[in-house]
Design goal:
One of its GO terms (biological process) is retrograde transport, endosome to Golgi. The chain is α+β, with helices and mostly antiparallel strands. It contains four helices and seven strands, in the order H-E-E-E-E-E-E-E-H-H-H.
């Protein structure tokens, strides 16, 4: 995926869902844990050197798995390259849980599944399609597919 560097910097400065200074270890062998300012903006996880304003990097939180490694550590690994695993160390177990939950909920696929789930429920209860008024009810991306189930297990695989 291609990104415009100026747009990414601009996005990194937007209000965040979560922000904290965490220990972070990259995916390369020999990488050591470094303190980074980590900021969740929409479905991007930006990381900064603690004394700089521009991000060192960003992770697009799509097609990834978020897992709790231990009480204070979680990882983000990408489905197309399971070896590419980033570790984040939190200050408390509660902080770790909040980060995991927020990252899972940040993905487009999680939001899409929620939209489909609630659309189906509203239609079942009212008999009306809530997207019809916006003229987008027939768009393929909002259609329920066979076997689609909303569960916390599905969400953790994003």
């Amino acid at each position: 995926m291609r990104f415009n560097e100026k747009e990414m910097v601009h996005l990194s400065r937007q209000p965040s869902e979560m922000v904290a200074e965490l220990g972070m270890r990259g995916p390369k062998k020999g990488d050591v844990v470094k303190r980074r300012l980590v900021k969740l903006v929409v479905n991007f996880l930006f990381y900064f050197k603690t004394d700089e304003e521009e991000p060192v990097g960003a992770l697009l939180l799509e097609q990834c798995r978020v897992e709790k490694e231990d009480n204070l550590t979680f990882s983000v690994a990408f489905l197309e390259d399971a070896e590419r695993k980033y570790l984040f160390e939190c200050d408390s177990e509660e902080q770790c849980e909040k980060w995991i939950d927020s990252i899972i909920k940040a993905s487009y696929e999680f939001m899409r599944r929620n939209l489909i789930f609630y659309r189906t429920e509203i239609h079942r209860l009212t008999g009306k399609d809530p997207l019809e008024q916006y003229g987008i009810s027939d768009e393929a991306r909002f259609q329920v597919t066979n076997g689609l189930q909303h569960s916390s297990r599905d969400a953790s695989s994003m």
